[in-house]
Design goal:
alpha/beta, Peptidoglycan-bd-like, Muramoyl-pentapeptide Carboxypeptidase, domain 1, single chain, five-stranded mixed beta sheet, 2 domains, zinc, metalloendopeptidase activity, 7 strands
């Protein structure tokens, strides 16, 4: 009996070592709620403690500006200030290190869920913010140019909605194909690129957050997964969240581009209305990656 208990203890110990936080669920960033938090933080700066600073830490960590985003720590310390300044610089705002009006406005905009600044695996240092286009760490890219793509959603889509999505997805892929050597052929999954609509926690550790906030995310080559938040007010006429605009951006990630801080580029992280054409920055980025 004692031996069995000992074995059981060892088993639990091993489980804990293998997966030290087995019961922690990934948390979605609730950006519309976060906007209210930001408004309460207006004017807060280094040396102060205020409710919501922890959420600001989480935001800055999620998008790559801070390595420790402990959401229970409401102290606005040196780390938060320098991360906030980094965010402001990357976004062409005044680098005040204070939660000011233009920072609140920028952080409240819908955006892509991928980080702006990507850390090197196992590195403690953040990469320097790019001045224009960027790549994922290690510059992963496709080893072939003839790619297949297909659709698989975990929510039910109406026929009308899906036919609009399909047409917009094709146009977005063709826009990239025109400036590269890539070809895209539609087929039922399995395919090189699999895109779909998902709601909330959908099993990849990056839960969606309901309307607005994070709109979509896509993984670096040669992963091929591209997910759209099913709860967005998607639109095909540029009235609300324009699907083709977001699809064009996410296709950039699928092909190997990170976020750009060039204002107006497709690979800019923030959604700023309909944007269905590539800019020179986007074209320079993809051509530099594949040496076209
Ligand atoms: Zn993105
Ligand atoms: Zn996902």
């Amino acid at each position: 009996m004692a031996l069995n208990l000992l074995n059981l203890s060892i088993l639990f110990f091993l489980l804990f070592i293998v997966n030290p936080f087995p019961f922690v669920e990934p948390r979605a960033l609730q950006l519309p709620v976060f906007t209210k938090t930001l408004q309460n933080l207006r004017g807060v700066h280094k040396g102060q403690k205020a409710n919501g600073v922890g959420e600001l830490r989480s935001y800055l960590q999620h998008f790559g500006y801070l390595t420790n985003g402990d959401s229970s720590n409401d102290n606005f310390d040196n780390n938060v200030e320098s991360a906030l300044k980094h965010y402001q610089e990357f976004n062409h705002l005044r680098s005040t290190g204070v939660v000011d009006d233009e920072t609140i406005k920028r952080m409240s905009l819908p955006r892509c869920g991928m980080p702006d600044i990507v850390t090197q695996p196992n590195a403690n240092q953040l990469l320097v913010a790019p001045n224009n286009y960027s790549f994922f760490p290690g510059q992963p890219k496709w080893r072939k140019f003839a790619l297949t793509y297909g659709h698989m959603s975990s929510v039910v889509l109406s026929n009308n909605f899906f036919s609009s999505v399909r047409a917009a997805k094709l146009r977005a892929l063709q826009t990239w194909a025109r400036v590269t050597n890539f070809t895209f052929t539609e087929r039922a999954p399995p395919a090189d690129i699999v895109y779909g609509f998902h709601r909330g926690d959908h099993g990849d550790g990056y839960p969606f957050d309901g309307p607005y906030g994070v709109l979509a995310h896509a993984f670096a080559p040669q992963n091929g997964r591209c997910h759209y938040d099913a709860d967005e007010p998607w639109d095909f006429n540029g009235q609300n969240i324009d699907f083709e605009t977001v699809a064009l951006h996410e296709c950039g990630h699928l092909l190997g581009l990170g976020h750009s801080n060039t204002r107006g580029s497709v690979m800019e992280a923030t959604y700023a209305g309909q944007r269905r054409s590539l800019t020179q920055d986007d074209i320079d980025g993809i051509r530099a990656l594949y040496q076209f």
